[in-house]
Design a protein that fits this description.
Blueprint lengths: L4 E4 L15 H14 L3 E5 L5 H10 L8 E7 L11 H8 L4 E7 L2 H8 L3 H18 L2 E7 L1 H7 L1 H13 L4 E6 L6 H12 L6 E5 L6 H10 L4 E4 L13 H11 L7 H4 L2 H11 L17 E2 L2 H9 L17 E2 L7 H10 L9 H16 L7 H12 L7 E10 L8 E10 L2 E9 L2 H13 L10 E9 L10 E8 L4 E8 L2 H23 L1
Helix pairs in contact: 1-2, 1-12, 5-7, 6-7, 8-9, 9-10, 13-14, 15-16, 17-18
Amino acid sequence: MSLVKIYDTTLRDGTQAEDISFSVEDKIRIAQKLDELGVHYIEGGWPGSNPKDIAFFKEIRSVKLKQAKIAAFGSTRRAKTTPDQDNNIITLIQAQPDVVTIFGKTWDFHVREALRISLEENLELIYDSLAYLKEHVSEVIYDAEHFFDGYKANPEYALQTLLAAQRAGVDCIALCDTNGGTLPHEFAAIINAVKAVISTPLGIHTHNDGDCAVANSLVAVDLGIVQVQGTINGFGERCGNANLCSIIPALRLKMGKECISDEQLRNLRSVSRYVFELANLVPHKHQAYVGNSAFAHKGGVHVSAIQRHPETYEHIHPELVGNQTRILVSDLSGRANVLAKAEEFNLGVDSKDPITLEILENIKEMENKGYQFEGAEASFELIMRRALGTLRHYFSVIGFRVIDTKRREDDAPTSEATVQIKVGGRIEHTAAEGNGPVNALDNAIRKALENFYPQLREMNLLDYKVRVLPAGKGTASMTRVLIESGDENSRWGTVGVSDNIIDASYQALIDAIQYKLLKDEQSN
């Protein structure tokens, strides 16, 4: 099994994505996670470009990493300046990284129009910068920027830039598809042409503007590339970089390449979600390998098949990347879906039990009205338990009232909710204000119940989504509310549907509270 080294640039290229910014502390924490994942190189940033990256390289020196090398990123020297006088080169060395990676111009168009120097002078920039760095840093990587576009425009000159880097003694030359427009079928001829004249180990750095970054990277490895650059979750400028969450399992599980260990691979999903969390972004549920929907099955025929042989509709075992099979319930579901969910919830349901068919028909009727259970599995479990008669009656809501008041034109509205709730033989009549009618209702219900169930203080409403269902009725349309709730141990989703948004929200809120009480009862 041949070794392919993984070069992560989430902390540099990834932060160039729109809506993404990491603090120095975030970058340190992500670097530690990447090291645990088993990546070989972590590109921490460009120390010559901003104080945050300078601080990162200073602080990371005191962090003990198991295997990863820290790389600093920069550019070749400026024209008409020697490397020892170039502030960018000096700052790279002063950062004291394990590795220095610099980029240079490959495309003659960029040399003339961006640098505005001669093609020969650009070759001198590349050679001088890399040779100087090799005297001061043990490992130097050269990123040949715009290599594929440069080769297509002027193949002879593009290869000359690589030869200049090779003469300087670099440890690896990464071929960059910087604009992300090269297609997989173009890679073979170009990479083979490079291999015919370059003996230095080669890497690949692809962007995703043509939605081919992962495919191009895998093609490059198949052609002998030994280093793959990319980012976690494909974060990066414009359309992003090559997604290491897809590349790593493809290398390990499908191409037989050594990159990270099987044990480390099982942490892939958790690392993906960790980076999403620190980026303050919602994880992409349809992401290959690590997304929530990557191994989710909805159609009844699919579910029946995977229960016998998972490989019928799963290209790998999800546990290998830290994911799991999920059975969804919808109007496409068959009896197998209900049985699978019952098994997941540890409910004893027999395939011949009439209750199974009753639950299935109930679900289909509810979805026809607008309910959706893919994101509301807690509501679905409660439906099953009610049908089986195994759900404890924790409380009853006798009634509620929500009032929104706007006293003056320039004032913000105020919201107040009043509820009557019966627990056992006792009735609680409470009121509460809130930031909007749904928050007020949530506060009033909790206020009434917390004396009986103090554990509700641990529960938080994490997300609230409203969907107006297409009914052609304008403001009188049906409304679906999805609520995500959680405590320190888990998260769960609930759903409500009504032509009244407050009523739909009430249904989802009540299910969320009942599920919390059920979950805590089961754990005791």
